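Hi there, hope your week has been kind to you so far. It would help a lot if you went through both lines with me. No rush at all, and the record is pasted right below:

***
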Amino acid sequence: MNPSSSLPDAKLSPEADSSVLQIWGGHPLRGHVKISGAKNSALVIMAGSLLCSGDCRIRNVPLLADVERMSQVLSALGVRLTRQGDILDINASEITTSKAPYELVTQLRASFFAIGAILARLGTAQMPLPGGCAIGARPVDLHVRGLQAMGAEVQIEHGICNAYVPGSNGRLQGAKIYLDSPSVGATETLMMAATLADGETIIENAAREPEVVDLANFCNAMGAKIQGAGSSQITILGVPKLHSVDYSIIPDRIEAGTFLVAGAITRSEISLSPVLPNHLIAVIAKLREIGLTIIEDAPDCLRILPAETLRARDIDTLPHPGFPTDMQAPFMTLLSVADGDSLINEAVLK
């Protein structure tokens, strides 16, 4: 969707710069939107590349600040990265340190999830906690308890999670792990750790998000043996090593959902692709309840038609396949211009 040539001339203040957004309202959106690769998949798959001692080519990688931060974390570990367009080439054949940089990990929560891959690969890992050593409940308890169940010794001191695998072979052991809540991050951390462990690992009450499935598919493409991703029980049979891979990341369901809401709130007809409609079932269902028409023009293309009247609806966020918490804010904006009162209940603890 290109800016309209009929927009008024911009009158920027002298101090205006690239950090300033100026918006002229009253213009409907129109056209087609290309959906990027899923950010949450890209970050964890980049961490998963640490499991492979060969080359990994990852396609459909979005150009985002978080992806750049994760690249910096991997580079600090000794990983070689080269990017061309949306293709990222990663070589982790020589990891020179097991200690991730404090100043980077504390800025990007997803980078902590690499602890499972580092520990599985090297037998030791030192990973700063997300947010540093802030007082309060540890946000990584499920990760830690799962790694301990697999035989790791884990201590948290001064905002650093220190983990190592005792014994001569330095390999984690398969275990049966129950998660108190279906945490996406914990599921991904433990699934990566289990790929190179001795024996079978079963994760009960696992997260079912599409990004978890994408990580499992990525690992399986490298030779891992993971079954059940997308269900509440994931089984991983450890293998001695993984091989090189060429893998493409799924489309970003949150970006797709946000553009659908943009079409709804501006009463515009827009189309978007590539998308995986089964990743957007809850979002599409709620938009239809509000009064919008969503058309599947192709298996990977959706189109939203404007509605004269928007109806109020209540929303409860839930773990997948429920309504995604990351879509709460866009829908709050949409429901603010709907007829009637709506209630949004945030039920997902991050």
Q: What stands out?
A: Residues 253-265 form the longest helix (13 residues). The radius of gyration is 22 Å.
